[in-house]
Amino acid sequence: MSAIPSRTNRSPLRMNKDVTALIPDFPFHYANYLQEAEGRPLGSVAAANHGQKVLIVGAGAAGLVAAYEALRMGLHPVVVEASDRLGGRLYAKVQGDPGSEVLCELGAMRFPVSGKALFHYFRKVGMTANSTDFPNPGTAAAISTVVDYQGEKVYYEVDGNPAFPKPQEYVDLENQFFDEFLEHYHFAAMEAAMSEGSIDQQKIKELWESVLKPATGTSGDDVSFYAALLQNSGWTKAEIDLFGQIGFGTGGWNTDYPNSILELLRVLYTGLDADHQLMFDGSSSLPQRLWSKTPGELGDTQVYWPEGTTVEALSREVFADPFHKEVRHIERQPDGSFRVLITDTRTNTQHRQEFASVVYTPHVRILDKLRYSGTPQNLPAMDSLLPQPTWEAIMYTHYMQSAKIFAATQRPFWNDPVAANQQRKMSITLSDRLTRGTYLVDYSKSTGTYKGSGIFLSYTWNDDALKFLGDRPDPLPQHVDLCTNLLDNIYPAIDLNEQYSTVNPFVEHNWEDQPLYLGAFKMNLPGQYEYQRRIFSQFMSGIDTGKPDRFILAGDDVSWTAGWAEGAVTTALNAVNKLAVCFGGGSLPGNPGPVESWESLKPIELG
């Protein structure tokens, strides 16, 4: 879901590198941790604690991974979800005519193969067999790309049509970015230390510390992406503006210019910006299958629970309908358990329930509001869930905005054959005007249910996304019309209105307008490293005193790489390891988890 675009010529796969997303702040190898377990539960809990009820707040990727793994260890996960669906920001919505439906991915839609913990679960639930390369601008999967910049249109294709080569200017930008700019931040050495066959966790930490605490000059934490380009790229401002619009010809970077350079470096080092996959079954299939399938069906073993037990069944034992259940208050009890107030938002019925532990996965922005809900007497109890420095970090968490406008089409007309020297009817499009990013998706090669096609008329971030809030009534144009008018101007030979499906053809989604999210995902600004360290490190609370805290934060904005589902999965694994420790156990022998690996890999403190 991240706003960071995909590189093309310099992607790890094109360079024959098997990069694993080992986050430099805490380079724990989550994929190895999962693989070494070989289908066994990731840890154990004391037999006396089998069946202990753990509340999992939120049914997104983090919540369902945590719940599924907690079940396998013999705990009793109870998932509650404030909305009416599973998935969170894994949200694939069916659009189009019956028989030719297409999925509109309203949240995450492109998944980097370097995110190997996520792909562990994609493979487990059977999604990777029905996937394809995502059609990012400038990639072979896109076939063709149009850059509409400063009133001029540039059309090019890659990997197959020498009649329309990628502009040399774009190639030069990409090469200069990697060979010159990123080498100020040890990119080649860091990428090598994250590549299978040469992984070196301590080298990663050493290189990263030199970025965070350089021998001379300003700390990396204090510099924005834009300021770093001014200091180290050698480009003119005009070249920085061009790079901001097109990246490497794969998508603009300028929505990230205000963010910390550290945010960009983490994603580039780890290959999360490249080699993306589109899941034909829909991103929502991951949480749905972890919810409804047994460990046995997914090739895993479990303890305590009888064969046939699912996360759904255990959740419904406590709440017959776990949806529309909004957590309104959490109060720690003297024995370390929690009394939780849960409201059914349809009936306004309140439930008070005791849980041995709580794993909280929604945006921490929502948690910050939650602490003030109810009566003034509730505030001390909520405040006590976290130390004040962590609440401060949560309060100042910065979120990106995102908007998508999607139209199902009657067919993927952009794939129609053309003569050798003829441009295609329509292309993946980058514009410096209203639509910004326009993506074309074709599900005709799917082996699953959905075979249709569609156009993301606009995919925008931050200020560009805010332009799609507050739609106005007729006779002023609606947002779909605004996008169509612009795209018809770029492609005058096409009447897009004739291409749309006739059944529910349009959908518009703004994550900042959603009451349960209030933003797309976290993205740290300069100076916010310590805030992020506090939030991420929360899962270790109480470990050093021998009284592990059973209130645990997880979710992608708790991770160091928000906006990527990999971060949701890895923080869920942190929470699962912590649950094992909380209930008298830990990781499997010979396979230490993130809790047991903390001291050697923990994030650097900047003070």
UniProtKB/TrEMBL annotation:
<dbReference type="InterPro" id="IPR050281">
    <property type="entry name" value="Flavin_monoamine_oxidase"/>
</dbReference>
<dbReference type="GO" id="GO:0050361">
    <property type="term" value="F:tryptophan 2-monooxygenase activity"/>
</dbReference>
<comment type="pathway">
    <text>Plant hormone metabolism; auxin biosynthesis.</text>
</comment>
<dbReference type="GO" id="GO:0009851">
    <property type="term" value="P:auxin biosynthetic process"/>
</dbReference>
<dbReference type="GO" id="GO:0001716">
    <property type="term" value="F:L-amino-acid oxidase activity"/>
</dbReference>
<protein>
    <recommendedName>
        <fullName>Tryptophan 2-monooxygenase</fullName>
        <ecNumber>1.13.12.3</ecNumber>
    </recommendedName>
</protein>
<dbReference type="InterPro" id="IPR036188">
    <property type="entry name" value="FAD/NAD-bd_sf"/>
</dbReference>
<comment type="similarity">
    <text>Belongs to the tryptophan 2-monooxygenase family.</text>
</comment>
<dbReference type="InterPro" id="IPR002937">
    <property type="entry name" value="Amino_oxidase"/>
</dbReference>
<dbReference type="Pfam" id="PF01593">
    <property type="entry name" value="Amino_oxidase"/>
</dbReference>
<dbReference type="GO" id="GO:0009063">
    <property type="term" value="P:amino acid catabolic process"/>
</dbReference>
<feature type="domain" description="Amine oxidase">
    <location>
        <begin position="62"/>
        <end position="578"/>
    </location>
</feature>
<keyword id="KW-0073">Auxin biosynthesis</keyword>
